Amino acid sequence: MQFTAGQIAQFLGGIVEGDPDVHIDRPAKIEEGGEGAITFLANPMYEAYIYSTSASAILVSLDFVPEKPIGATLIRVENVYAAVASLLKEYGKQAPASQEEGISSLAFIHPEARIEEGVYVGPFSVIERGAYLQKGARILAHVFIGQEVVVGEGSLLYPGVVVYHQSKIGKRCVIHANAVIGSDGFGFAQENGVYQKIAQVGNVILEDDVDIGANTVVDRATMGSTILRRGVKIDNLVQVAHNVEIGADTAIAAQAGIAGSTKIGQHVQIGGQAGFVGHIRVADGVKVQAQSGVLGSIETEGEMVGGAPAMKYREFLKAYAVFRNLPKMEKRLQMLERWLRQTEEP
Predict the structure, then answer these.
(1) Which of 171, 235, 259, 345 has the lowest CB atom count within 10 Å?
(2) Out of 3.40.50.620, 3.40.50.300, 3.40.1390.10, 3.60.15.10, which CATH number does the structure's domain 3-94 have?
(3) What is the pLDDT of residues 179-222, one digit of tens each?
(4) Could you confirm whether 110 is annotated as catalytic?
(5) How is 253-317 classified by DSSP, letter by letter?
(6) Which CATH class, in words, describes the domain spanning 101-317?
């Protein structure tokens, strides 16, 4: 797939500085580059590479002012990250997974499953009774689709994905390898010291444009639905428990865990390995630092929290600064105690 810098600039609504006819055939990291590559500069930490990269074209912001001559063609855009996302999406349309159509002869399709036009089902995948695969859905190899599951138009399920019965997946969702949607929530009742399983009779609903990372698990609700709203983005190895609700355009990094019945607002950002107790609420726009332990509701929109237990981020930084100085403070305290003892001696 080959373009010119001018064509890319037109596609992105950018401005070319340099040769508009230079050929671009792939994206690349700025520190690697190479002839025919297009890269980008969005983080000032990487500015040094822009003067030495061998890439043919570089996406930069409208207000970027170089300190030295740059050999590559520049494409100036208003929002570099948004431009990169658009460009990679265009390149992604050429990926093998997006080109497949038809039903593999090695797949099992239940006679009562409903499959619309343009659907692809890969080898050794299983589509159970009552499942509904909408137009353009792509089910790669070794995927299990349970009874009465709906997979929305244009959604992509990578190898090894398991979708339990009655789960609903919206349009243009992407679920990566070995993710599990709709497994039982962790529900048990103790009776005479013995745990008795509570039947999990709800389901999971993923609204449109949800992305689920590899090996992530979204549990079905005990009753009702576990719901991930439109545009939610979840990284690899995340646990979403039963009856959790996650608001639109919330992003959750790897190894985070959300306990049952917690309600996460929209546009929330959750760092890796953060943990949430159950039955709490997190307001819209909250930012949670990696490895934070959220033990209570966060009611203020846009709040930034960190630490375990989590507290306001500025308070956490102050507390952490004190914590780091504890060894020095202990030494000073010991010196002070010795001085006091000496002054008290007759």
Answers:
(1) 345
(2) 3.40.1390.10
(3) 999 999 999 999 999 999 999 999 999 999 999 999 999 999 99
(4) no
(5) -TT-EE-TT-EE-TT-EE-TT-EE-SS-EE-TT-EE-TT-EE-S-B-STT-EEETTTTEEHHHHH
(6) mainly beta
